[in-house]
Amino acid sequence: MSDTRRRVKVYTLNEDRQWDDRGTGHVSSTYVEELKGMSLLVRAESDGSLLLESKINPNTAYQKQQDTLIVWSEAENYDLALSFQEKAGCDEIWEKICQVQGKDPSVEVTQDLIDESEEERFEEMPETSHLIDLPTCELNKLEEIADLVTSVLSSPIRREKLALALENEGYIKKLLQLFQACENLENTEGLHHLYEIIRGILFLNKATLFEVMFSDECIMDVVGCLEYDPALAQPKRHREFLTKTAKFKEVIPITDSELRQKIHQTYRVQYIQDIILPTPSVFEENFLSTLTSFIFFNKVEIVSMLQEDEKFLSEVFAQLTDEATDDDKRRELVNFFKEFCAFSQTLQPQNRDAFFKTLAKLGILPALEIVMGMDDLQVRSAATDIFSYLVEFSPSMVREFVMQEAQQSDDDILLINVVIEQMICDTDPELGGAVQLMGLLRTLIDPENMLATTNKTEKSEFLNFFYNHCMHVLTAPLLTNTSEDKCEKDNIVGPNRNNTICPDNYQTAQLLALILELLTFCVEHHTYHIKNYIMNKDLLRRVLVLMNSKHTFLALCALRFMRRIIGLKDEFYNRYITKGNLFEPVINALLDNGTRYNLLNSAVIELFEFIRVEDIKSLTAHIVENFYKALESIEYVQTFKGLKTKYEQEKDRQSQKLNSVPSILRSNRFRRDAKALEEDEEMWFNEDEEEEGKAVVAPVEKSKPEDDFPDSYEKFMETKKAKESEDKENLPKRTSSGGFKFTFSHSTSAANGTNSTNSKSVVAQTSPASSNGSSSKPTNLTSSVTATKVCETVQYTKLCFFFFL
């Protein structure tokens, strides 16, 4: 098989400045005696004929573009290009070229635009001498000028010569005078030539020319020239848009005229790059790099000038937080800060640090706390973007602010709780804003970016704060949607109460999935904080109610949460699971899935396979003793038989140990094993263990009880309910016996493990076909799940461009 790394297409530039495909072959670099040097050879893959034989000249400027393209000029008007199938092949040939020329392969151009000897020669020339003879700037010479400009673009040295000639002659301003004459005379042909000329001058990629073209005197005429693209039937009206449609808005009056001019210039040049100029081809992508740099450095200057004007920023903050500020004005102020922060990303790290510290000093976080709670969707969206910049810059700065804030404010108005509530109340059907906020929350609670010093530990302090003041807000929708109280509120009583599956519409399911993703992250990174919370709230039981959701992705999120807990191989968690009989809803889901081979089936099997492979004895014993009869018919995997084998082996091992120990020592041995748990874990199980499945936990002094969910949650959920249309969910069908297919209850008594008419059980029920010899399938368990309606769905709107609408 041929080496695909060396597979290339050969291109040559024709007289019309278009690239012609000369064929496909394989390239190699070898010494050619006739050419007396290392050369590039390309042989056609079809017949092995020679497509290209080119000596690697030490003085030729080779360019590497887009990782798979090498371009160079061999003569005045003979340009070549090799387009590689794979980057690795391009890199190999590029290294050969650089080796011959003695260059570092990390460069993208092997030669300077002008070599040293040429530079010295140019410096010795009088200023009036011509590097390229430019035609006189007259209407009848426009076609000749256009041909000259477009012909030099493929040669770096010729581009440089033309740029120097244009600088010395003051040529650009003369061309723009001709543009005004052509427009007055309605000379369409001349305007088309001027389009080619100005576009070509932009592609010369010369900063000194940009300074002239983008000056206040010239820039609108440059835009005018670019309106007359010969490919268009009618010219575009870019100047009309820039002068009449795009309005300059000052949220606070700017007194610095230089700053105002810089803002106008940057907007117009950005418009030229993004809107007017066509997307560069693969051979033109490096031609506008200086234009990009021009815009970049302009933005740096704007941010620096605004940052140094503390009076201006103080006034912006004062109006942003002033209750008397009207909504339109506040929206403009927030959008200004959003674009201001976006521009700051162009700063060097040390300057960016100073910028955000200035904002923090002026009170950006308290201001965000106010505007994020407003009803205006556009304001909240912009505030979220600003908050993301701050979190990305310094999570520690945000954490320090919220911990100080907690000493003076109620939980409901804490910044992080405001962020959580915005996530919960996102009205976007796809929860785009909620996903963004969830990512920011995960960054804030990630111990990996928390600092530890000799005086204090940020991790310990912040996590204590988060679990005491914020976790109950985050889990409120989850606990509400899996609470039996919901059925009481909906007046579901009597025999149908346990057969009710509360509606879980798609948006609610998405929200619960996001919350579960955060909680799963906490299980992996927060150790005893999340363990404490799970035990106090019996959280895993509530999460597993979602295994009955009609949305498979939500059931998988619930399963993933349990899988992460089991993956810790913590006996404390294992005992909590076995005492609460928490495998039951998982096994119900597996049995209900039947013979379908899907992601849910694989995920459940993987959970039990992990327990078998890791030989988690307490869980293995619990599964075999309680569920093996329901699982023994599953034979398409050996997981459950393997668990049974592990269980019997361990039982035999324990029996042999007991037989080898004198009876007089057995009681002491058992007494000693009963104390094996660490003292801080045994406290969770210090109540009567005779009550089957009871999850016994010690209360935590500062933990928020379930009844203490914030009133704000109920308020904003009720408000959003009034705006939302009823979701018509298909309830589960009844079986032939008149009952629902599932009967899993998650009542408080079941959570505590007491005997109840609603307690869980697995019932093997013979199908009608079993009398004919077919296998019977156990009837599964379901849960009655309640769901809270979420906010009305609306689409986000795009924000204005910097300073402009």
UniProtKB/TrEMBL annotation:
Residue numbers spanned by region Disordered: 682-782
Example GO molecular function: protein phosphatase activator activity
Domain Serine/threonine-protein phosphatase 4 regulatory subunit 3-like central: 144-649
Gene3D superfamilies assigned to the protein according to its UniProt record, in alphabetical order: Leucine-rich Repeat Variant (1.25.10.10), Pleckstrin-homology domain (PH domain)/Phosphotyrosine-binding domain (PTB) (2.30.29.30)
Stored SUPFAM superfamilies: ARM repeat, PH domain-like
InterPro entries: ARM-like, ARM-type_fold, EVH1_PP4R3, P4R3-like_central_dom, PH-like_dom_sf, PP4R3-like
Basic and acidic residues composition-biased segments: 701-732
Acidic residues bias: start-end ranges: 682-692
A Pfam family per the record: PP4R3
Domain PP4R3 EVH1-like span(s) in chain numbering: 5-101
GO cellular component: nucleoplasm; protein phosphatase 4 complex
Gene Ontology biological process: DNA damage response
Bias type Polar residues, positions: 733-766
Sequence ranges of Low complexity compositional bias: 767-776
Protein family: Belongs to the SMEK family.
Protein name in the entry: Protein phosphatase 4 regulatory subunit 3B
Source species of the chain: Oryctolagus cuniculus
Gene this chain is encoded by: PPP4R3B
